[in-house]
Amino acid sequence: MNKAFTKEDETNEPAVVPARAPLPAGTPNYVTARGLQKLKAELRDLDHERARLDETAPERDRARALAALTARKSALEDRIASATLVEAPHARDEVRFGARVEVETATGASRVYQLVGVDEADPATGLVAFVSPIARALLGRQVGDSVSVKTPRGEEELEITRIEYDDPLDAP
Questions:
Q1: At what angle do helices 33-56 and 59-82 cross, to 10 degrees?
Q2: How far apart are the C-alpha atoms of 95 and 160, rounded to whole Å?
Q3: Entry pTM
Q4: Which helix (H) or strand (E) covers residue 120, if one does?
Q5: How far is 160 from 141, CA to CA, in rounded Å?
Q6: Which CATH code is given to the segment(s) 100-167?
Q7: Are 89 and 37 in contact, with CB atoms under 8 Å apart?
């Protein structure tokens, strides 16, 4: 039987490309200096991955892999083009984008959150997107202020105990 009539080659299926973290409609794509550097490094990595695919991918897999890579690169280029770099504010006594905020829970536990762009967010490490509920609750607050936040653990009362900003000279 001619190979053209077999299901052996399934390369006609569309490539699955993971979506980037969404930005609410009309929301600027704010980024920290570190976040912008990470996006640019990701773009360089995709270029290296493309070169590797061109050299090593079997012919039957190459078209699908390149299509997925092209879609990822296009989405990333759009995100970088829309990025608005936010520098640390001059007044550092208030929570703004880029702030690292230490809070204390009602039980006395301490947590640290940094308000970052959506592509840089990693809640498991304390990097929270500026559009997240915790970030929105903290924005504009000062040391000593308390905020109430709905979390997976339920309603939590958090007191701000410290606000810090990265020194721009330390940025990558």
A1: 160
A2: 9
A3: 0.79
A4: none
A5: 8
A6: 3.10.50.30
A7: no
Question: What does the pLDDT profile of the chain (172 residues) look like in tens digits?
Answer: 444 444 444 445 555 666 788 888 899 999 999 999 999 999 999 999 888 887 887 777 778 888 888 899 999 999 999 999 998 777 789 999 999 999 999 999 999 999 999 999 999 999 999 999 999 999 999 999 999 998 777 899 999 999 999 865 444 4
Measured over the CA atoms of residue 70, residue 73, residue 79 and residue 83, the dihedral's sign is: negative
Domain ranges of the chain: 28-85, 100-167
Q: Note the Cα 154 to chain centre separation in Å.
A: 25
The structure tokens listed for 126 are: 């304390």
> Three-state SS for 107?
coil
